[in-house]
Amino acid sequence: SLGWILIDRCGKHFGTILNYLRDGAVPLPESRREIEELLAEAKYYLVQGLVDECQAALQQNKDVYEPFCKVPVITSSKEEQKLIATSNKPAVKLLYNRSNNKYSYTSNSDDNMLKNIELFDKLSLRFNGRVLFIKDVIGDEICCWSFYGQGRKIAEVCCTSIVYATEKKQTKV
User: Fold this and answer.
1) In this structure, what is the dihedral angle of CA atoms 124, 145, 172, 125, given to the nearest 10 degrees?
2) In b/e form, how buried is each residue of 54-84, taking b as 16+ CB within 10 angstroms?
3) Which of 65, 95, 104, 116 could form a disulfide with 139 if both were Cys (CB 3.0 to 4.6 A apart)?
4) Domain 14-60 is of which CATH architecture?
5) Average pLDDT along the chain
6) What confidence category does residue 111 fall into, taking pLDDT thresholds of 50, 70 and 90?
7) DSSP 8-state secondary structure symbol assigned to residue 88
8) DSSP state of 105
9) Which residue intervals define the domain Potassium channel tetramerisation-type BTB in the entry (predicted)?
């Protein structure tokens, strides 16, 4: 009676729909999930041109696989600091440098190194939504786990020790 219509929808993609109505074109989101969300809203508002564009983008990206679990491999300490500082999740970093002091490993060191890497991979697959997992392959340590919360380091566990065997010093992982 007052000339108003209440639209009870999430406003996340409403700006994109308004821009499409105004300009006749909009850049589509990169993620498949967001395109699907935008498609649902475009269908609701009966914006057929945007519906067609979203469907075409989804069809084109049908074979593109979006990974379930993404683990960044850091390339600098600055990148590491930025990742940890900007994350709102706790972080676990595995630093492993298999080439560091390679020829002084004990006989079980390679197996133990692989066990650490496999554990990290299993944890990252299981808890990827709640924890940021980071791989560091440029550090000076051989094998070291670091744990971060609220942007600062909470704990660190080094997986190596020096073993003095007969006639030579060896590194045990």
Assistant:
1) 0
2) beebeeeeeeeeeeeeebeebeeeeebeebb
3) 95
4) 2-Layer Sandwich (3.30)
5) 86
6) confident
7) S
8) B
9) 4-54
**What is the predicted pLDDT for the residue at 97?**
83
pTM, two decimal places: 0.58
The three-state secondary structure class of 98 is: coil
SS3 121: helix
- Rounded Cα gap, residues 86 and 151, in angstroms: 7
Determine the pLDDT at residue 92: 96
Residue 93 has what pLDDT? 96
Quick one: fold of 73-172? Glutaredoxin (3.40.30)
All structural domains of the chain with their residue ranges: 14-60, 73-172
Instruction: Supply angle C-alpha 65, 68, 74, rounded to 5.
Output: 100
Q: Where are the alpha helices (DSSP H) in 45-96?
A: 48-60, 77-86
- pLDDT of 25 above 90: yes
Output the six-digit token pair for 162.
């020096």
Tokens of 14: 């409403």
Q: Which amino acid is at 109?
A: S
